[in-house]
C-alpha cells in the first residue's frame, strides 16, 4: 500500500489509485521528520489569519437578536429572502413548530440564492425541507458576497445532481451554523450535507445521515472549514464519508462518528490538501470499504491534539490513521485504540513524516503492523509513546517497519513497546522482539 499525491483540482477527494509502489526516499525527508518532531514539542497551532476566521457571533450564541417574523409558509420565506437580497440583508425569525415545505426549483435551490448578509433564526421544531414530491433541488445556495447564518434550524430533504445536497457555498460566500441540523440531504457529486468553496463555520450543530456520490457525505470543502462542538455522523460517500477537505479545516471539541466510505478511502476525515487541525475531538466507528477508515492525510500538514481515534475499520489498510508520502503529521496526547485493518496498519499506516508525543496506540489489529505500519519511504518518531496490546495476524504486532523506513523509539523519553502479539517489532532498532 502506498498513498500518493493526486490532482484534486476538480474538487476534494476524487482519488484514483493509492497502490502505486514508490521506492525512493530522500535524506532531506528523514532529516526533516526529525526536525519536525523536535520543533513541534509544545506546539500551539493556530489557523492562518483570515483562513477560518468568521467571528464567533450569531451562530455560537444561544440567544440571537430579534428579527422580522416570517409566517409559517414557504412563500413568506421566499419573499423575505428576496427582499433582503434587494435591500442589503436582514434578520428573520422563523416560526416554531413549523416546516417550511419547498416545492419550486429556483435556479437549483428551493430558496433564492443568498447574495447579502442574511440571518434566519428558528426555534423549537423549525424545519426547512424540500417536498419529496417536488423536482430535485438543494435547499440553499450562498453566492459570492452572500453571508448566511442559520440558528436553531433543521435543513433536510435537499437532493441535487450537482454539489451540495443541503447547502452550497460558492467561493467568496460564507455560512455559519449555530445549534442547527443538516440531515438527510443527497448530492450526486460532492457534499451531501454541505459543499463549501468559501468559508463555513459550524458550531453546536449536527451534520447527519447525508449522502454524496463522489466525496464528502457530510461536508466537502475546498475553502475554509471550522467545526466547533459539533458532530458529523452516519454520513455516506464514495470517499470521505464524513468530511472531505482540500482546503483548511479546523475541528475542535467535535465528533466524527459512524461515517462510511463505500469506494476507495477515508471513512471519517479525508484531507487531501492544505492543512488540518483537530483538538479535543473523537473519530469513532467509521469504516472504509478499502483503505483509511478513520483519518487520512494526503498532501496535508496534519496536527492532532488530544484526539481519540477508536474502533474504525478498513477492509484494506490503515484502520485508524493514514499518512501518505507527501504529508507530515503530529499526534499529541492522543489515543489510537481498537482500530482494524485487513492488511497493513491497524492503528497507523505511515508513508510520510509522523511524530507521536505522549500518545497511546493500543488494542489495534492488522495482518502486519497491528499498532503501526511504517512504509519503506516513511519516518516515524516516538516521544513518550506507548505501543501496547496490539495484534498482527502475520508479523509486527506493535510496530512493523518495512526495509528502508525509519523508526525512532526514543526510549529515553519514556516510549514503551510491550505486550504486543506475536511480537513487539520488526526491523526497529532498540525494540524488544
Describe the model.
This protein has 433 residues and is mostly beta strands. The strands form five sheets. Strands 1-2-4-7-11-15-19-23-27-31-35-39-43-47 form a 14-stranded parallel β-sheet, with helices on both faces. A 13-stranded parallel β-sheet has the order 3-5-8-12-16-20-24-28-32-36-40-44-48, with no helix packed on it. A twelve-stranded parallel β-sheet has the order 6-10-14-18-22-26-30-34-38-42-46-49, with no helix packed on it. The longest helix is centred in the first third of the chain and has 14 residues, at 74-87. The model is unreliable at 1-61 (pLDDT under 50).
What is the fold's blueprint, element by element?
Layout: H1 27-39, E1 68-70, H2 74-87, E2 90-94, E3 98-102, E4 117-121, E5 126-130, E6 140-142, E7 147-151, E8 154-156, E9 159-160, E10 167-169, E11 174-178, E12 181-183, E13 186-187, E14 194-196, E15 199-203, E16 206-208, E17 211-215, E18 219-221, E19 224-228, E20 231-233, E21 236-239, E22 243-245, E23 248-252, E24 255-257, E25 260-261, E26 269-271, E27 275-279, E28 282-284, E29 287-288, E30 295-297, E31 301-305, E32 308-310, E33 313-314, E34 321-323, E35 328-332, E36 335-337, E37 340-341, E38 348-350, E39 353-357, E40 360-362, E41 365-368, E42 372-374, E43 379-383, E44 386-388, E45 391-395, E46 399-401, E47 406-408, E48 416-418, E49 425-426
Parallel strand pairs: 1-2, 2-4, 3-5, 4-7, 5-8, 6-10, 7-11, 8-12, 9-13, 10-14, 11-15, 12-16, 13-17, 14-18, 15-19, 16-20, 17-21, 18-22, 19-23, 20-24, 21-25, 22-26, 23-27, 24-28, 25-29, 26-30, 27-31, 28-32, 29-33, 30-34, 31-35, 32-36, 33-37, 34-38, 35-39, 36-40, 38-42, 39-43, 40-44, 41-45, ...
Amino acid at each position: 500500500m502506498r498513498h500518493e499525491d493526486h490532482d484534486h483540482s476538480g474538487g476534494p477527494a476524487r482519488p484514483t489509485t493509492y497502490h502505486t509502489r514508490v521506492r525512493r526516499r530522500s535524506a532531506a525527508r528523514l532529516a526533516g521528520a526529525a526536525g519536525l518532531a523536535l520543533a513541534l514539542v509544545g506546539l500551539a497551532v493556530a489557523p492562518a489569519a483570515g483562513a477560518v476566521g468568521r467571528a464567533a457571533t450569531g451562530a455560537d450564541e444561544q440567544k440571537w437578536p430579534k428579527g422580522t417574523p416570517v409566517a409559517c409558509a414557504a412563500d413568506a420565506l421566499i419573499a423575505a429572502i428576496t427582499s433582503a437580497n434587494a435591500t442589503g440583508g436582514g434578520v428573520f425569525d422563523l416560526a416554531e413548530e413549523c416546516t417550511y415545505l419547498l416545492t419550486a426549483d429556483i435556479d437549483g435551490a428551493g430558496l433564492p440564492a443568498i447574495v447579502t448578509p442574511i440571518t434566519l433564526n428558528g426555534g423549537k421544531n423549525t424545519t426547512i425541507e424540500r417536498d419529496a414530491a417536488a423536482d430535485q433541488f438543494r435547499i440553499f445556495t450562498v453566492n459570492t458576497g452572500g453571508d448566511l447564518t442559520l440558528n436553531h434550524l433543521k435543513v433536510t430533504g435537499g437532493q441535487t445532481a450537482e454539489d451540495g445536497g443541503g447547502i452550497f457555498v460558492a467561493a467568496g460566500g460564507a455560512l455559519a451554523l449555530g445549534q442547527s441540523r443538516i440531515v438527510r440531504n443527497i448530492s450526486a457529486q460532492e457534499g451531501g450535507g454541505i459543499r463549501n468553496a468559501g468559508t463555513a463555520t459550524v458550531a453546536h450543530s449536527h451534520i447527519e445521515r447525508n449522502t454524496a456520490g463522489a466525496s464528502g457525505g457530510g461536508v466537502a470543502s475546498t475553502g475554509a472549514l471550522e467545526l466547533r462542538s459539533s458532530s458529523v455522523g452516519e454520513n455516506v460517500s464514495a470517499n470521505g464519508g464524513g468530511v472531505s477537505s482540500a482546503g483548511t479545516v479546523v475541528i475542535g471539541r467535535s465528533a466524527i462518528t459512524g461515517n462510511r466510505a463505500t469506494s476507495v478511502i477515508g471513512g471519517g476525515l479525508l484531507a487531501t490538501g492544505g492543512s488540518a487541525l483537530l483538538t479535543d475531538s473523537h473519530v469513532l466507528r467509521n469504516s472504509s470499504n478499502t483503505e483509511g477508515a478513520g483519518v487520512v492525510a494526503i498532501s496535508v500538514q496534519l496536527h492532532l491534539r488530544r484526539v481519540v481515534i477508536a474502533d474504525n475499520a478498513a477492509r484494506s489498510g490503515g484502520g485508524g490513521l493514514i499518512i501518505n508520502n507527501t504529508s507530515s503529521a503530529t499526534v499529541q496526547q492522543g489515543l489510537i485504540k481498537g482500530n482494524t485493518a485487513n492488511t497493513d496498519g491497524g492503528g497507523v499506516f505511515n508513508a510520510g513524516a509522523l511524530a507521536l508525543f505522549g500518545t497511546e496506540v493500543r488494542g489495534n489489529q492488522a495482518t502486519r503492523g497491528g499498532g503501526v505500519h511504517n512504509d519503506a519511504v516513511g519516518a516515524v518518531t516516538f516521544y513518550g509513546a506507548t505501543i501496547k496490546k496490539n495484534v498482527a495476524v502475520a508479523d509486527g504486532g506493535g510496530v512493523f517497519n518495512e526495509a528502508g523506513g525509519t523508526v525512532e523509539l526514543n526510549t529515553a523519553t519514556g516510549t514503551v513497546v510491550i505486550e504486543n502479539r506475536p511480537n513487539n517489532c520488526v526491523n526497529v532498532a532498540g525494540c524488544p522482539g
